[in-house]
């Protein structure tokens, strides 16, 4: 069986579901794990070239049918001539849009050989009643079957170009026009939200404020806050919730391509 010295995990995961998927995949392989957390303001900013004997696992959430802009920009810094990569986009049961083809294009452009790729479904990080508590047991079973097939393919060393759904040019990247509010009566000024924000949208000493122009609605600060002081509210959020629960609450399944 093909073995690797290093398993490099690259992910952007504001509400932690994408990280969970990446960990599930990585833990099925032997080798020392290295992490590249692109949510971290400093993470992924400098060029990185992987050595032979590395398997790369990449996980990205889908934002408005695309990869989050900050994440895709950083991902372009990772290069690996013929380095095998397993790459997934992770979405909240609404739509994949062009994110899967975008992820595959970036990795191929940077030299990686895609072993297996796909789109997994997880709890929607904004409207949490959609795909609530996913990935569940059934999702993880399907994911494990996929990883098993990736292992077989790595052993066979036969890698053909994988076709994935999506359009070119990609759909236009649209920022979701939501910004979390901070309930200062709950806030204990721990500043965890400030350091969690990939866009530096929360001023250093003033977590009560958020710069709406910088905020990408990624949800990291909401999931980080130990006091549940940060959340989305307002008409647009309520309308989004109603629309998603009415139109997109039927279970979609993960899909994989090898
Ligand atoms: C700004 C934003 C945009 C999103 N856009 C989509 C989308 O277009 N389609 C979809 O199905 N889910 C969408 N989602 C849901 C996330 O893709 C999903 O919850 C994913 O599991 C989040 O990953 P994370 O837990 O690693 O943050 C969006 C979430 C956010 C925060
Ligand atoms: S302020 Fe906006 S961009 Fe920053 S962590 Fe919170 S939701 Fe994400
Ligand atoms: S993480 Fe929550 S409690 Fe801590 S500063 Fe931010 S809003 Fe306040």
Please tag this protein with its features.
Alpha-Beta Plaits; two-stranded parallel sheet; 258 residues; alpha/beta; 28% helix; six-stranded mixed β-sheet; binds iron/sulfur cluster; binds flavin mononucleotide; 7 helices
Could you describe the 3D structure shown?
With 258 residues, the chain is α/β, with parallel strands linked by helices. It has two domains: 6-169 and 253-257, 3-Layer(aba) Sandwich (Rossmann fold), CATH 3.40.50.360; 181-231, 2-Layer Sandwich (Alpha-Beta Plaits). Helices cover 28% and strands 19% of the residues. It contains seven helices and ten strands. It has helices at 17-26, 69-75, 99-109, 137-156, 192-196, 220-224, 235-247, and strands at residues 6-11, 32-37, 48-49, 54-61, 78-79, 84-91, 113-121, 181-182, 230-231, 255-257. It starts with 5 loop residues before the first strand and ends with a strand. Bound molecules: flavin mononucleotide and iron/sulfur cluster (2 copies). One iron/sulfur cluster binds at residues 180, 196-197, 199, 201-202, 210, 215-221. Residues 182, 187-193, 207, 224-225, 227, 229-230 line the site of one iron/sulfur cluster (SF4).
What's the count of strands? Answer: 10
Number of domains: 2
Arithmetic mean of pLDDT: 97
* Ligands present: flavin mononucleotide, iron/sulfur cluster
Strand order in the largest sheet: 2-1-4-6-7-10
Q: Classify the fold: give the CATH topology of the largest domain.
A: Rossmann fold
The level-1 CATH class of the largest domain: Alpha Beta
**In CATH terms, what is the architecture of the largest domain?**
3-Layer(aba) Sandwich
| Ends distance | 18 Å
Which stretches are poorly predicted, pLDDT < 50 over at least 5 residues?
Answer: none
């Amino acid at each position: 069986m093909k073995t690797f010295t290093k398993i490099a995990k690259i992910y952007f995961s504001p509400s932690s579901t994408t990280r969970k998927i990446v960990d599930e995949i990585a833990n099925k392989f032997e080798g020392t794990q290295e992490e590249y957390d692109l949510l971290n303001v400093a993470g992924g900013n400098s060029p990185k070239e992987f050595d032979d004997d590395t398997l790369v696992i990449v996980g990205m959430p889908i934002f408005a049918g695309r990869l989050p802009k900050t994440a895709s920009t950083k991902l372009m810094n990772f290069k690996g001539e013929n380095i095998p990569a397993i790459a997934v986009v992770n979405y909240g049961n609404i739509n994949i849009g062009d994110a899967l083809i975008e992820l595959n294009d970036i990795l191929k452009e940077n030299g990686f050989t895609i072993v297996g790729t796909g789109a997994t479904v997880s709890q929607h990080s904004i409207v949490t009643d959609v795909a609530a508590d996913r990935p569940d047991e059934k999702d993880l079973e399907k994911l494990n079957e996929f990883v098993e097939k990736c292992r077989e393919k790595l052993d066979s060393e036969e890698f053909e170009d994988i076709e994935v759904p999506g359009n070119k040019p990609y759909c236009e990247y649209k920022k979701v026009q939501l910004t979390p509010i901070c309930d200062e009566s709950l806030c204990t000024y721990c500043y965890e939200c400030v350091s969690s924000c990939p866009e530096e949208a929360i001023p250093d000493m003033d977590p009560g404020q958020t710069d709406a122009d910088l905020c990408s609605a990624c949800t990291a600060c909401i999931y980080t806050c130990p006091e549940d002081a940060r959340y989305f509210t307002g008409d647009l959020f309520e309308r989004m919730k109603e629309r998603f629960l009415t139109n997109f609450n039927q279970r979609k399944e993960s899909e994989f391509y090898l």
